Amino acid sequence: MDIRIGIANSPREISFESSQTAAEVESLVAKALDSDAKFVKLTDDKGKIYLVPTASLSYVEVGSEESRRIGFVA
């Protein structure tokens, strides 16, 4: 799963691959924004943990679960 996170007042975005499903990511972000949580905690495929402050979230883009194709398609 491809995840891209936009941060307010930052020209770059956070981009990583995660083994979490789109529904899991959506529920984690929604719960953090609805509650008084200070951070959203997401993990990538390699086990790295990303703590993103909820106050500076601009957007969260969750990609498709389909793997990328390699080579030419006829």
Automatic annotation (TrEMBL):
The protein's name: DUF3107 domain-containing protein
Record-linked InterPro entries: DUF3107
Highest taxon of the lineage: Bacteria
Record Pfam families: DUF3107
